[in-house]
Fold these 2 entries.
Entry 1:
Amino acid sequence: MVNKIMRSLLVILGMILGQQAMYYAIRLIPGLEITPVFAIISYIIGALIGGLVLFMISPKIIKKGKQSTYRMEKNLEKMSINEIVFGVLGLIVGLVIASLVSFPINNVPIPWIGNIISFILYIILGYLGYSLATKKKDELLNLSTLFKKHAKENKEIKQGKEEYGIAKILDTSVIIDGRIFDICKTGFIEGPLIIPHFVLEELRHIADSSDSLKRNRGRRGLDILNKIQKELSILVKISEKDFSDVMEVDVKLLKLAQYFNGKVVTNDYNLNKVAEFQGVEVLNINELANAVKPVVLPGEEMEVQVIKDGKESGQGIAYLDDGTMIVVENGKKHVGETIEVIVTSVLQTAAGRMIFSRRKESERVNHKVS
């Protein structure tokens, strides 16, 4: 019964196509006079030919159609729901694109040409949409998950910004340095703290280095991160945001700071300067350390241990407990001694502070350091 219905429909389709083909065919013959009777007879002949042709080949068409339907059914059974959904969506997108492209093509003045090209476009683009969507379903799912993750991350960071303050993006140098943990512990830095994924990757590579010094630095950085996450009450987030078109980690940091409208926390002097040039706010731990050092004014007296020669002739070098270098005028001859000095001047730079001094003249008796 189904075969008879299908065959009848194919015959009707053949008659319609035959009539249409004859309609255009008789108009392509130059000089042919088309009377109403001639046109009707031509249409009937075309319809009969088209119907007869489809009647003869319809069994093969129906057989092929059933085979194709069976194969399609088996393929669909093997496909997951995700593949079917993405396949349908891809097909719809392909057909929509084909529809948009077909608008100017349908205006081609040559009969049938525009329709034929449009039909071919629908088939090709529809198939491409379906094929690409099913083959790339995993990537599309990952992309969807990534968008959701970024949206959630941005929401959390915005909430953190409202509750805790401006986001602070940590770079590799400041994590390895470790002082950021102590600063956060004191409560002087408000969060959220953002640890970029690419910084974690850089730390991991350093921790896996064959160089023992680099390896220890990398492992120290990872230990500091674990301490920050476990021991501090401040909000800490691992950002998966990446910039695949950028290779330099420093540039990625600045872009991430702009993305979150936050500040970069670093010890890197060069990164500090580049960030200032690009209008990104930076918190430099070294500058903070210099700012909280005790203020030393010219004329103050202090007791120091001269430990080595200076660069200039006759100079001696000493250090305060916080690491500040003290240059002692004519202190070379006092290397290994603890003497009293008077501060003559203080040089403050972004890299640190340097104190210049001279020996206190009233000091006559110095004691050797055992």
Entry 2:
Amino acid sequence: MKAKKILVPAALCALLFLAGYGVGTLIARQMKKQKQDESAYIGRSEIKLTDGRMTPEALLSLGRLSDPQVSPDGTKILYGVSYNSIADNRSCRNLFICDIDGGNVHQLTRFAKSVSNARWSADGRSIYFLQGGQIWKAAIKGAVLGKRDRLSDIPAGIGEFKISPDESRILFLSTVPGSVKTPDKSDPLLGQAEAYATETLMYRHWDHWVTETPRTYVAPFGKGIITPDVARDILGEEPYELPTEPFGGLEQLDWNPDSRHIAYSCRKKAGIDYAFSTDAEIYLYDVETDSTVCIPMEGGYDTDPVWSHDGRKLAWISMARDGYEADQQRLMVAEVRTDGATMEARDIRWVSESLDADAAGIFWTPDDREIIFNALVDGLQALFRADVGSCRISRITDGDWWFDFNSPFAYRKNGGIEEFFASYCSLNFPNELVKVTVDASGAASYAQLTDENLPILRQMAEPVCEKRYVKTVDGKDMLTWVLYPPEFDASKQYPAIEICLGGPQGTLSQGWSYRWNYRLMAAQGFIVVMPNRRGTTAFGQEWKEEISGDYIGLNMQDYLSAAREIKAEPYVSKLAACGASYGGYSVYYLAGIHGDLYDCFIAHAGIFDERYMYYTTEEMWFPEWDNGGLGRGFLSGSPWSEFPEAKRHYANSPDVNVRNWHTPILCIHGGMDFRIPYDQGMAAFNCAQYMGVPSKLVVFPTECHWILQPQNALYWHRTYFDWLDRWMK
């Protein structure tokens, strides 16, 4: 049920930081289904707030900064910003440039059609970018972009590209027909027929029927227009996807500095094997010989390979266990020999073994002695360094900095002073560029480089964030963030919202979200309570794994512990439980067991009937493991499994306790949600109606697990707050 890219454990700010496939591709897929007028330029919003209160309209007006790229000479940063037009119901992304210290910000492009995947040329005199599914090049001088020249003509379109270091070759993503077949439109009697036909599993994924499969191609670069005739499919005749759906992009492939060898991650499985397995391997591909070698590992997910600057080492993220998508993300490094046609990996080491956390976002320092990465620890996404030789891990960002940091995109060292250029966010602001400085004594400091959203944010009164520890029923301390409304007064009373986290393996950190925005909730006068219950990922592997096969166990007691503590405060009047995905499951389950603890419920894209969910979801490895199978064999997590954990799981599905429902509940779902199909929300609403419980159903027919289109997002927020106001104020 996860809504996150498998190997990015950050909050949504980190997802938005990635270019290419990811979230941008989800939005693009939805927009392809609708005719969009892209003739009008969309710029920065000039919204005015008269009372200092953040609104849904203000949230949707904020610019979304992403994909920073440092110039070859290290003096400039190129990045993109997306702006919404609620009236036009679309967004548009354009390019900006600033000095390395954040000064002299200039907008490079003012196109009506989005620009993405912008990259500097090796000499720093031009930039390459994607627009309209094709690659373009334009000279850049200062902050002025020259005439565009089109470099590709790929009829199926290009999703992302990566140019080799010597600029002689290019990797790009496109699509081929998928396993799902549609009527032959050349037949005059079938011109208006609409159907999807399949004879194997994984026929739909996340938000789409698998009528197309992503593939990666290599082609000559700088030798004329890139066309299908000059491009070679890296997988040849193999029937697999590259990169991995639904969120994978070219972070799953990397050029060796020799511009000849490519490391890539691929799950070489199809049909039922694909649906039940997470076993992706790292492969080495020789462009000149068209040969491939696999780096064998245990059987779990291996992805995001990154070559060292000297091309002799390869780092990647690895999971050990097949079928367990929340397994520990290990930072691995191998010595790699690429002499001529020889490709061999040896001396594979788990570099991050001493850190009980999930590593992500690999960045080599220029001397190849260290790798910088990010990891969620104690409720924050922090930067770490790993000494490749000794495997010693040390933290860079301070634990008192209440921000989520993404891995660096640039680094420089002057004497004993190091500077890491990255992006960061918090519960109070979305992604901005930041510089983290570590002096010769090891002391760290940070300086924000951009203020993309300052004109809007400075109009808003800020909430106050508290870090609280709640005692669990087994005597442990659970980190719980609490966000208080602006101008909070403890002598007054306020309604509170307990956030039930999705995933279920995720973390309530300092991450910014444009969908579940806790600052916006606080601005409406609610106290927002964010417990990091069992199953969250920032408190070690043992805490994370306590949820698998035990959805109704300690993690539900964790919610109740936090709820009882906050509701006992004299300044709390009423309490709601709200959540999405597994958080929606939690809401449906709590509705049947809470007594009179909660006064209102909201479930978005939640699981109501676990048996039916098993029969209708797409990524089968997830229920196989988490529903009680725990990797003990094929169908061990099925509704007919004999394992006691699976029997207990299905016997306690949220629908079992629906006879106890009596609290107002709002059920929201996307009609194109293929992870948790929308009839789960319908079933929950129908049962609430049968029981005479005040209830409301909202279905967005063109949305998936996430509500992404601007006007739909606005309606979602208005509906959410209308329901809370109705029952909580």
